[in-house]
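Course assignment 3, question 2. Fill in each field.
Student: A.L.
Task: Predict the tertiary structure for the chain below.
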Amino acid sequence: MNVRLRELLLAASMTGASTAVVGAQPALAPPATPAAASTNAPGPRIQFDSTLFDFGRVKSGEPVKHSYIFTNTGDALLIIHSVNPGCGCTTVGEWTKQVEPGKTGSISIQFNTLGYGGQIFKQPSLTCNVTNQPMVFLQLKGTVYKPYDVIPALAILNVPPDAETASVVMTITNNTEEPLAVFSPESNNRTFSAQLTTNQPGRGYQLAVSAVPPLPTGSVQGQITLKTSWTNTPVIPVTVVVNAQPPVMVIPAYVTLQPGPLPNAVTNSIAIQNNSTNLLKLSDPAVNVANVQVQIKETQPGRSFAAMLEFPKGFQVPPGQQVEFSAKTSHPKVPLVKVPVMQLPRQPMPVLPTPPAPVTAAAPSVPPAPVVVPPTPVKPAPSAAVNPAPVRKVRTTIPPPPELPPEPPDPPIRSK
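Answer field:
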């Protein structure tokens, strides 16, 4: 009994000791929170509140403006060297060029939404004097919607060579809360017509555009206008292009020769292409002047042809005559193909100016010998000086005195 009691007391003492040890352990420290951005980092530092601006959903034509705020978290002057908008639709407004440590600055960006639609993402950028971050990219995103959408934006009607007409269906959708009424389609060209159908009143419409035969060969462009109930958008314009492919195509449209008479024989090639579904046959190829040989080569049976025109040496288009190549075809719409032959005019010879007559050099004239007049000796006047200074003799030439006119005779004396 005593042994059992001793074991129980020993176990109780060990349990209390272990509890005391556990209670003496220090409590665990809470997790550390991120430290705030330091404002005494070496050199200039730039930190934006946010480099991303989401402008949400705006109507096309409404400008989007935003100012990006940044702080200099360094210990030196922050200098913004330049701001690049990134594209022509984005412009830069006022921006802070220098920021002291701990101070804030801003950069204003404006995005022109005119002509845009759907998801938009722009990325302006700036350069600064931060050593490890000399360039920072900003982001601008959102959705631009148009008041209405016309899909496809351009009505293109491609008419095959064997078809008489073609058509395309366009949808007009109202993207605003205001009801839109569309009516009275009008065409400015008789080559195409339009018919309007209402899918959902005030919200959606269908416009069927068709080409009206007979269609001219080539491309024709025009416009369909639809009146609306909106004051700011009274008319919806729709551009239409009709491309009628010719059943037979001839390249080139005309043949050009160098000025005549040709110094050598010349061979010109004309390509004839069949765009129709039926095979084509050519016959009776000719040029309406003498001495020109014509040969037809069928490069692809019923599809592609080459007309070879051989002009002889000395060929010259007769004055006043229209020269052309012609060939008959089996296509009912194009029974005859014609290609004019043109010859460049000969340039007139330039008139050279008449060279001046040669000038003969005259013999050099010999100046006459000078006439030497002997000097007349002049006697010096007597001087009262005891020792007169020597007189330097100067040779002078004294011209002779002029002759006096003869005196008139005395008048006769009359006696009283």
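Instructor remarks: Residues 1-5, 8-38 have pLDDT under 50 and may be disordered. The first strand starts at residue 46 and ends at 48.
Grade: pending
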